[in-house]
Amino acid sequence: MLKLEQLYSLIDQEASRLKWPEEPKLLYDPLRYMMDMGGKRLRPRLCLTSYNLFKDDIGEHILSPALALEVFHNFTLIHDDIMDNADIRRGVPTVYRKWNDNIAILSGDTMCLWAFKMIGKAPKQTLDKALNLFTKTTIEVCEGQQMDMDFETRNDVSLDEYIKMIGLKTSVLLACSSAMGAVIAGAPDKICEGLYSFGYKLGIAFQIQDDWLDSFGDEKTFGKKIGGDILNNKQTWLLIKCREMAQEKDRQNGSQTSSRLKELLAMAETSGEEKIKAVKEFYCSLEIDRLAEEAVNAYYTEAMQSLKNSGLKEDQIRQMETIATSLVKRNR
Amino acid sequence: MLKLEQLYSLIDQEASRLKWPEEPKLLYDPLRYMMDMGGKRLRPRLCLTSYNLFKDDIGEHILSPALALEVFHNFTLIHDDIMDNADIRRGVPTVYRKWNDNIAILSGDTMCLWAFKMIGKAPKQTLDKALNLFTKTTIEVCEGQQMDMDFETRNDVSLDEYIKMIGLKTSVLLACSSAMGAVIAGAPDKICEGLYSFGYKLGIAFQIQDDWLDSFGDEKTFGKKIGGDILNNKQTWLLIKCREMAQEKDRQNGSQTSSRLKELLAMAETSGEEKIKAVKEFYCSLEIDRLAEEAVNAYYTEAMQSLKNSGLKEDQIRQMETIATSLVKRNR
Fold it and tell me: A287 lies in which domain range?
């Protein structure tokens, strides 16, 4: 097994070697733009590390499928940004804002298709399994995005529904990334499934942590303004859990906790800092912040348990755990 | 070899058995809507017939990839209709008009991904070649669509550029469909390439015929209003050939043919029938109508030549020729 730093540097090398066609320019410029935005390349890292648990022959047959996961992820961002009217991503204009809707639609489509071309470099012996895992996953990501859009017009989303949605929208691609390397290496099904489950649970932990950070994080380390979700009344783990607990409290002792939450949500966005402060205090009064941290820890523990039950060896588990800890910072 | 009618009925059966998930409803309703619009299912027909030239064991391993070609084609229609602001397709509202842009983007994405899922049913021995052919083709289709959009703001498109564009936007998918069956059947490369070239040339002939029909066809058999391309000054084979010939004439004998064409194109769309009549007469005066028919025939002949040079046997060639004649009606 190589060291993680070596694996990561192989990913970065391969990414810098990626060559998109020059023409048609308006089709490929947005792809270059997205791929040059950087990012941690978490999905390729998971995939290559998972492959390297079993095999040392690192070449195009695994680097190309590993990067396909990043290319696909970037495609979803291009299209999601149109659907969400998002103007800025990683500090620069989104593709549909820099160019236009049509360019963003068609460049996105092309990017998605290149991801499949890159998956096609997997070795013939395991290509069928790799392709099936990838298509299943990518379809689920779209289903998750649709669920998320459906949630926008609802205020009765349950925590179970929310977990299902982030499971599809976020976790399955991390699960696929964790399993893909092992699948391409021809590892036993039970181990591939264990790695999939690890990535899935890790993804849920990561998303709940992200929800927590948006309200309770440190602006400097989080990298964006704190409180955005609160201002937009966004359906997050915190808000949904809070709504469920408020309703439970009202049922138990006839309190008016739900009404109080509704009042807070009805505060105009313009009241800015005041609203953020009030909602955070309300969350804390119901211990939602602590419960979120507990949930993150619980999903993280489940992720590690999946690895342990899969039949992987100690050193293999430790390698994957190192990635997990870089992604989810536990507080206990 | 089965009869074409038998093959076509197997395609129709399989299409009617296609089951899309019920949920999320807003994601899958548009897919059902598109697939129920009907159409000739030309691409699956080409694919299944090409497979059956070599093998008789018709099952999911070929029917599913064959239908994938239709599913992919329908995905491109959903996204193209957004980009082209097209309100009506096959007599009913387009997806983005019936629902909205976001639904059309995400349902289209999902449809594209399902096409790959269906290609994934190809037998393991030939999956790598089938997938590579499919990804190469689908990327080219997007490149063709981008070229077509680039042409909208130009009035100096050459006939060579036009043929390249329709080659990508239309022909490569017919080429891929013709070759895919043989590829999945494990036929020799030379034969697969011959079938690809056959489908490519046939596609060019088909598109030039379509351009001709839009101006010179019979409204009843063509199924839509004659003259739409003329009213929109659309860059078609007829217009581009006409422009090139007018310029050539002006160079040779100092005529003002190009200026006359420009005047005609500048006629307001509102003058409707008058403009259509004037442009058609102008085309006829330069014999563009006859030249278009000749070009259709020439590409058709090249298509058949590709089959003959590929090493296919007489009865195999005849089977493919029957599809070709149903697609391109020659006039001589």
Answer: 201-309
